[in-house]
Amino acid sequence: MATATVEAGVCPTRDLPRAEEDLRSFGACVVLDAIAPAMLKEIRQAVYHAADSDRRRGWRRDYAYGSDDHLNQRVWNLPSRDPVFCDLAEHEVAMHFVRQVVGWPALLSSMSANITSGGGASMILHADQGYMPQPWNRPHGVNIGVCVDDFTVENGATCYVAGSHRLNRTHTAEDATPLTPLTAPAGSMIVMDGRLWHTNGVNTNGVSRAGIFSLYTLPIYLPQENWFLSLNPAIRQFGSETLQTLFGFRPQVMGRINGLDRI
């Protein structure tokens, strides 16, 4: 079975309405210069510092989701690793697309870094909301990616099947899956509909490429990261109301304590 027909692909842009149109048409969009240079520098230092620390201490935790186990490095629970990732979680451009795609309130399901290197392999082709009941009638999640480094074909840029979000289901062996790379310069923000079929590309040039991926979902789903156990307590003390909602500490209906929305 073929995927939805499209005539072109994502065109990186600084114009949010144009990016929104790409997201509707192709299931993804790229917003150029979404991250200010000073913030990008801070993010990049924090990501690679955390990755190096995990390797040196034996704390590295790979995510076996296909053939990328032990080849691509994952750094989990980024908000607890450095406050700059809390800033990123509630970044104005990210929040714009969260509200557009998922609505509000929403939950931050996870925020992790994926670092490809020489010999790195691809994950399996998947949709981020693949664990949610099918068929889907709408996006139940949105994945906000940040290009810490340039995303190129050679260093394993994220690849997607344009228009696959329109099918409202996961892919099968019978589906045509022509992959298109999402190439973008560092500082760009990649937005993917939760229904979009995608994977990371294969790193063939040996140059490390870091990307940060934050999945935001409807507040009816259990987050991938158990924030109640893993989150730095300082975020509970000092985080904004937006952060408190994203981490599940401001439950709107379900998850209350004695009927209250403050945990």
In terms of topology, how is this protein built?
Elements lengths: L15 H11 L1 E4 L5 H21 L15 E3 L7 H7 L2 H10 L5 E10 L24 E7 L10 E3 L19 E2 L7 E5 L4 E3 L8 E9 L9 H4 L2 H6 L2 H6 L17
Antiparallel strand pairs: 1-7, 2-3, 3-9, 4-7, 4-9, 5-6, 5-8
Quickly describe the structure.
With 263 residues, the protein is α+β, with helices and mostly antiparallel strands. The protein is built from seven helices and nine strands; from the N terminus they run H-E-H-E-H-H-E-E-E-E-E-E-E-H-H-H.
Structural write-up:
- The chain is an alpha+beta fold and 263 residues long.
- The protein has one domain (28-246): Sandwich (Jelly Rolls), CATH 2.60.120.620.
- The chain is built from 7 helices and 9 strands, in the order αβαβααβββββββααα.
- It has helices at 16-26, 37-57, 83-89, 92-101, 227-230, 233-238, 241-246, and strands at residues 28-31, 73-75, 107-116, 141-147, 158-160, 180-181, 189-193, 198-200, 209-217.
- The radius of gyration is 18 Å and the shape is globular.
- The model is unreliable at 1-7 (pLDDT under 50).
